[in-house]
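Q: My labmate handed me this sequence with no annotations at all. I'd like to see what the chain might look like in three dimensions before we decide whether it's worth expressing. Could you predict it?
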Amino acid sequence: MLIWSNVVIHVQGVKIISLQWMLLLIIMGYYLLGTKWGIFYSLISLLFMLSYFALFGRNAMTTVSAVDANSFGFITVFSFNFLLIMYVQYHFFSAFNLTIKRLNEKQAEEKSLNEKLTAAIIIAEQSTKAKSYFLSTISHELRTPLNGVIGMTDVLLLDNPREDQMENLGMLKFSANNLLSLINDVLDINKIESGKITMEKTPFLIYQLVNSIYAGFKLKAHEKNLSFTLKIDENLKDIAVIGDPTRLTQILVNLIDNALKFTSVGNVYIIVSFKENEEDKIKLYFRISDTGIGIPQDKQELIFESFSQASSSTTRKYGGTGLGLAIVKNLLELHQSKITTRSKVGEGTSFEFEINYKLHNLEINTNETTNYKNNNEMDISNLNILVAEDNQMNILLMRKLLAKWDIKPDFAANGSEAVEAFKAKNYDLILMDIHMPLMDGYEATAIIRADENKNKAEVPIIALTASVALDVRNKIAEAGINDFVSKPFNPEELRGKLEEIASRK
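A: Here is what I predict for the chain of 505 residues:
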């Protein structure tokens, strides 16, 4: 009422005391009555101010006179100003202190959570390292004796065994290769899940690669009396692409192996063609189909999970770990692709996928992708070879295998002995095991490469190791090792490398 009375008694002007009452009204409205009433009284006061100044302009404001200063209204308003300041400050600092307290509590809670998270991360990292170390170690321990079994089987097969011995040796090698495949699958899925698998970018010929894989499965298809057909676009014959041939091989081998495994009667088809061919890119289409047992509709997602198959009866009847399709799915994701499944129970299954590759316009030496075996084998008996190996079974294997090629190698039981042998004699090649006592293959290679005789220091070194640790290839390259053969190795593959060394001698 005091404020609006100024509109009627306009000759007095809007006094400072009226403004103080207005301020008091607005603030008390907010603090005592709540937000809605605060807004209501603010609008009333604003309406008055706008109306009054619209009527009288700048002359609407007057100051407080001496008489006004002694009035009861002025003293009341003045006193309330102090009380209002105290009230506002009390609420402000109460809210401020409460906010600071809650902020400190949140910070303490966040700090505690961060400490727990850091501890969990450390534990997870330690667990991952322990898992990686365990798999690397167990891989070495499993592959080393397995190398002896497969290697000695190969040596015996080279001795022109009788027909009954050939059958037994074939069964022995088949079982050993199955065990090796299982070990490799477990290690591969571990590498993929840890995110440490890397894709190579090397040029290769699609046509030759697919035909080589097809040739490798012909015998298995023939043994099951299956029709095994490859349909590959002839236009791909001379097309080279840049990618990872090892991972593509792994994808196709897993799918073809599954198709042959789950098909008892009928056909298995491999179809490869290109869907798009641009100036520097090509999109390849792959399909592997069979007339096997088929996959139920509700299991077609499950089969791509690790250690999973369509049913327990499938595992009992056909064997396997259930890792093959999980590896295929993850490898295709690394290619920015996905697999499509079409299947009917009792009729068969078809897996389809597409991969984009960059075209390679340089010629590729086709000898790189062909089999190492040659009917006109080169004479490699004059090679001086040093074998650095600590395992007695592997030493026996290498002695027998190289003896088949009329090679009499020298042996060193560890890296230190290998270095001493290198200094004492000139060698055409050193076959170096990576894991040895006293001094490992990496350190021994580094010492050899640092020898004062530069020509001698450039002796070719091939690593022979049962280890498939994630960083083994990088370590091999950093140590100056020329090539790498994983145990158990194919004798023909090793011979091919020896012939290459002999041809440069």
